[in-house]
Amino acid sequence: MLETLISSRTRIKLLLKFFLNAQSKGYLRSLEQEFGESTNAIRLELNKFEEAGMLSSETEGNKKVYRANPKHPLFDNLHGLVMKYVGLDKIVDNITERLGKVEAVYLVGDYAEGRDSGIIDLFVLSSELNMDYLLTLLEKAEKQIERKIRYVHFKTRVEIEKLLDRQSHLLIWES
């Protein structure tokens, strides 16, 4: 879907990196390794995003580090577009309906860091969860979004917070 609107693979990767999780940051060489693209292509796109005010940068040591600008008027729209592209909007809608007492859903792993790896990892916080129904919903969602979905179910906030402290995560739904 997004590929028909945006022909630049590098631009799409940057959108995912910075607008899926606003906490993501990166510098030119790290993005080169992560994307497998030339530094020149990445630099051109970073400059365009920065000139438009969609990305901000700061110097850390000898590196220019970029991150999304959440104050930009299009930030929420871009975040929503990227969420739809990845399929997280459908997953959240499916998971939170008729599943029990879902308190929160967190995105962890590659997608929480803005990398489109094809595997979506979720932490689901729920004291009561209809596991059979969840498996059915995830199976349907995987077909719709053409990505693999893995999840871990936690019953208490204490359990989940221990793991969240150690890795990148994004709260995508909370009751």
TrEMBL record:
<dbReference type="InterPro" id="IPR036390">
    <property type="entry name" value="WH_DNA-bd_sf"/>
</dbReference>
<dbReference type="InterPro" id="IPR043519">
    <property type="entry name" value="NT_sf"/>
</dbReference>
<dbReference type="InterPro" id="IPR036388">
    <property type="entry name" value="WH-like_DNA-bd_sf"/>
</dbReference>
<protein>
    <submittedName>
        <fullName>ArsR family transcriptional regulator</fullName>
    </submittedName>
</protein>
